[in-house]
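Bit of a strange request maybe. I'm writing a small parser for structure token strings and I need a real example to test against, not something I typed by hand. Could someone generate the tokens for this chain?
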Amino acid sequence: MPSNVYKKRLKLQLIIILSIAVMSCGVPSVPTALSSLLERETIRVGTVYGAGTYYNGANGPQGFEYELLAGFADYLGVTLDLYPFYSYEVMLEQLEEGNLDIVATGDAVTPSLEERFAYGPAYQYVKQQLVFQAGAKKPDDISALDAPIIAVAGSSQEYMLSQLLDKDYATSSGPTSNLITTEDSDSEELLQQVANSNITYTVADSNRLALQRRRYPNLAVALTLDERMPMAWAMPLTQDDSIKAALIEYFGTVHESGWFTVLEEKYFGHIRQFDYVDSRAFNYAAETDLPQFKNLFEKYAGDLDWRLLAAMSYQESHWEPDAVSHTGVRGMMMLTLDTASDWDVNDRTDPEQSIRGGSRYFASLLSRIPARISEPDRTWMAMAAYNIGMGHLEDARVLTERQGSNPDLWVDVKRRLPQLKQKKYYRTTRYGYARGDEALQYVENIRRYYDSLMWLDEQGKI
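Reply from user aminoacidic:
Good idea to test on real output. This should exercise your parser:
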């Protein structure tokens, strides 16, 4: 959900909007959808379960769509009543019957859906991609596949495929066999089934695919079927435009405030790039090498999540106790001689000493990040400092502020890190040249490894 600063901005914006409406139009004699919602002090929202939409995590409800919805409820000053569904069509029927105010499917908008529902503003655009298993024969044409495509019933993928395949629902002849729909699996499960060789093809949007490829690196893109499909929230077609107007103002405000960019960065910023070889190697190492060190990471993690510490160690050394870099740093946490001395590490190649020293050093960096910076930004900045030093991190934050952005947001600071190796910028900084692009990649890699470790841990694989 938004930080307190963003919440205050959103609520102030709403007060101004409603005040203008009252002054210009007077109190409406006929209640609008928005006024009815505000009067009952709740907004009823439907969504579907998924990593990118809504799920119950270790720290409570999570998901990109969930946080956007919670932000909208805060914006209106009402309680969020969230109803998760397993079926697209059942959820949409509930919207049509007036039992829901908004539906956030995390799915793209299609022309057929626009005939049934009203939509708020598009807040993201996704690609629709035909997915198969890496190593299998890559198809060249969707109309000449050697196996059917499995898609979720009622999804944007079903609509798009039916159009591409010229599917005739009234007959069972023709290209019908090229598309099979199901209500027993969601899009994420279908991707898992492709990865496990249970099915040959499915179609997924680029957001869901990016999330799942960290877990199943053998997922590959055969064809991009649509380059740009909008994502938006649906409302009843017969409803007046008052809630739609509030949505337009809300999304305008969260974009202007920068909160939408922060949220998008949180869920998708570190997974847009994909490395098949690295992902497979990491998952294999997590299941084979990590177990012998897991107890040490747990023992010395302190207030940190041990899986985050383990992810850092993999980025540093690939969990190799004798690892050494060209700069002379050594061990599982790649400590310099000076850092090792500061944290009582006598043998940098001893796994326990290295993990203990690295954990304490990282905790010290974390404590030096200004208290006003909230999580997870504090952690990502401390991580960058672990790689290039606190001084260079501060240089990047200074550059961020000079350029009119927020030095307390990772999404803004990370864009300035590569400038630390550009003479135009580093000659104006206190600590000079640094390989800031490497620090950025360092943090993004660890975030991906951390995501994978959390999932592997939940699956009982580590």
